[in-house]
Amino acid sequence: MDKETISRIEANPAYITLRKKRNRLGGVLTLIALVVYYGWIALIAFDKQFLSLRIGTGVTTIAIPIGIGVIVLMVLLTAIYILIANSSYDNYIDEIKKEVKQ
């Protein structure tokens, strides 16, 4: 792709909007993931007593469902990004492609 085409794309209002929305969503989801993940690690480091609490009469501790919850949340955050990207970002990309082909 030549520099003129790149300049036209970067100046396109749809491209600017797309970048802003994508960066904002990515930032929010990343922040959520980091808070949850590092919160989990901090809990492991600083409150082992809490994580060693048994659930019911079995041998499972509370750490297992919390750890599974962290994994499930990461999958959900990925799914949220994919759903939003497929429903919203594609419209902007199509608009940008139309303008570049002109």
Automatic annotation (TrEMBL):
InterPro entries: DUF485, Inner_membrane_assoc
Keyword tags: Membrane, Transmembrane, Transmembrane helix
Listed transmembrane segments: 25-46, 58-84
Record Pfam families: DUF485
One Gene Ontology CC term in the entry: plasma membrane
PANTHER family in the record: INNER MEMBRANE PROTEIN YJCH
The name this protein goes by in its record: Uncharacterized membrane protein, DUF485 family
Species for this entry: Bartonella choladocola
